[in-house]
Design goal:
237 residues; alpha/beta; 6 strands; 38% helix
Length: 237
């Protein structure tokens, strides 16, 4: 969350959690990678000041919908300091959130750009940019308590959209840690997949990565349909 835009009014616990996330150094490999990425950026980002710290969740503290991704991108959120901001995946996600009525504008360029979310909160399983976008299992497990606490503090939220299989698995692990009974057998990820986990509803969506959007594996109507279903489910709760 950016200090000058969308802060949880009265959400002291979320603010404290945000500060903890920003100061985290639990995973030496990720600390080294996020800082190395900032020290040697691509030419298009040279001269820009990188965030190069863990990235906290962003959005409406009264959200009924949580959107969970994998981790910050090395030259996206690791640069801008806000989830899904500053890369093509974020361009797709925030444009879709705007079309669905969750965002006040269709683009996200950086902290302080005026973007605000209504009824939605965007976060991730892992809070530091990982090499090759592949966190190690131990790094995932070190970070999961942050997601667990966010889901607890978002006390109006019972619907989650997981962007990709890693986020799907992470969300299931977080809910299980919170005492929710995961269905057996374990629900399989797929685009449009749905699972009931206690009182929560989990929806699967292909990640809006360039690998998926450039190939047509994920299209705008497909993403819009998942968000429409998420709104339907969240408004029932």
């Amino acid at each position: 969350m950016a200090s000058d835009e969308q802060r949880p009014a009265g959400g002291d616990s979320l603010r404290r959690l945000e500060a903890e996330v920003h100061a985290c150094r639990r995973c030496p490999r990720l600390v080294e990678w996020r800082q190395a990425s900032a020290a040697e950026p691509p030419r298009r980002f040279r001269g820009q000041a990188y965030w190069a710290r863990p990235v906290a969740g962003f959005g409406d503290p009264a959200a009924r919908l949580a959107i969970v991704g994998l981790a910050p991108a090395a030259h996206g959120a690791n640069r801008t300091g806000r989830m899904f901001t500053g890369d093509r995946s974020g361009d797709w996600l925030y444009a879709a959130l705007h079309r669905a009525g969750y965002a006040n504008r269709p683009g996200a360029t950086g902290r302080g750009d005026g973007l605000r979310l209504r009824g939605a909160y965007v976060t991730a399983v892992v809070r530091c940019a990982p090499p090759a976008n592949r966190p190690a299992p131990a790094e995932r497990d070190s970070c999961l308590p942050y997601l667990e606490r966010e889901l607890t503090l978002l006390d109006r939220c019972q619907t989650i959209v997981a962007l990709g299989s890693f986020a799907w698995d992470g969300a299931l692990r977080a809910l299980r840690a919170l005492g929710e009974a995961a269905p057996r057998p374990k629900p399989r990820f797929g685009h449009g997949a749905e699972a009931a986990v206690g009182e929560w509803r989990l929806l699967g969506c292909y990640h809006p990565s360039q690998q998926n959007t450039f190939t047509g594996r994920l299209t705008e109507p497909m993403l819009d349909q998942v968000l429409a279903r998420a709104r339907e489910l969240s408004e029932r709760s």
